[in-house]
Amino acid sequence: MNHIDKGAPKSQDIWQDLDRRHHLHPFTDTKALNAKGARIITRGEGCHIVDAEGKKLLDGMAGLWCVNLGYNRKELVEAAANQLSTLPYYNNFFSTANTPSVELAARLATVTPEGLDHIFFANSGSEAIDTAMRMARFFWQAAGKPEKTWLIARDNSYHGSTIAATSLGGQKEMRKQGGPLLGDIAHVAQPYHYGEGDGMSEDEFGLFRARLIEEKILELGPERVAAVFGEPIQGAGGVIVPPKTYWPEVERICRKYDVLLVADEVICGFGRTGSWFGCQTFGFTPDLMTMAKGMSSGYLPISGVAVGRRVADMLIENGGEFYHGFTYSGHPASAAVALATLDILQDEKIIERVRDDIGPYFQKGLRTLLDHPLVGHIDGVGLIAGIALVKSKTPKTFFETADKAGVRVRDHSISNGLMMRAVGDRMALSPPLVISHEEVDDLVRIVRRALDLTLAEIGAA
Ligand code: PMP
Fold first, then answer.
1. In sequence order, what are the beta bridge partners of 41?
2. Atom of ligand 1 nearest to the CA of 125
3. Domains, the chain, ranges and CATH?
4. Tell me, what's the ipTM?
């Protein structure tokens, strides 16, 4: 029997062999991966994933910050199956609409912040970002200010990997590849207090970094700036939670200079921070909001841009076609799964549980790790957290890249049963929102064990 024959039983080795020979992975050094072979994941159960050898791992990352309801929600599977058997596909182009996407847009408008009542659908976070970038510039064209084209984002932000999203994002290494990137995009320093606070209080630093946006707007000329983009919490940049003074000041600045504010809620949306959206946790209201991931709990691809009144009024009242959209904008099966996701979030009061119970429990549990010699600082709110690893706490000294501290902690964590991600020397955690108290206890215990093993290894070296 050939390995690619349908139904042929495959061991981890066989999967790895096929994977090496034919599969190019996202964000991967293929040569390095092929030298060791991929971990093959075959099943999910609640908050755990299971690999081809039957090893079970607690999923501290909810897949890629998305499987918010855990892995075996029959309601989501049934919603997809029912929709696929009724109408597997129809588009929303050319004066037609499918019912799940209409219903989803209306349901989303009941949970988005006041005024963000219209939804444009796409399929991935990157596509939602491209949509918001084009929409912001199109808005100013339609408003008779076509010279407002500049977009401002932050260093070390992540907004996706299409060419537009790469151009907008502030990931240095990523930006070096595949250019030239799009023009009229500027970056300012990120609000990372622990790493870059330089003796300022958190509150001062938040205002200071927000005002860099004001300086940039003035340098470019407010009449040339279309929008400021930001993740409420920088996720892929290492879970960087801004000081509480930051976002309200950014909002004030955007209003002052008549610049649109776009919140990239791809990670923070749908309860991750204990509110429906991160902007609600941080106290600001954007003009546009991108969403994806938790929208369908990762079961099917879907994303969207929630559009506030000002931009929606222009689209609705001005008339004229916005030449933008995707074959699968508002795919009926994905929309049906997103509707079922909203039902579960609401019926089971999952977001309230993140805010009042499991979020604080998770944050408190993690902070017991602050006594560990490798843990310099822990950032987090709700069910998202970043742990900064340090060589020494006082004076604060970060590791050299060659120490590979983050990778070591991650590898020990995985060997001990917890999927955790390393972003340089920041450990990222974002477990399913349905994680139990016992599973949080397990998670914290495994992180400590991984830190201990890393300390022993680095000490020995
Ligand atoms: N924005 C943010 C904040 C993200 O975290 C991500 C993905 N991690 C994206 C956009 C891009 O989403 P996608 O990978 O679905 O294109």
1. 51
2. 12
3. 39-72+350-460 (3.90.1150.10), 75-347 (3.40.640.10)
4. 0.99
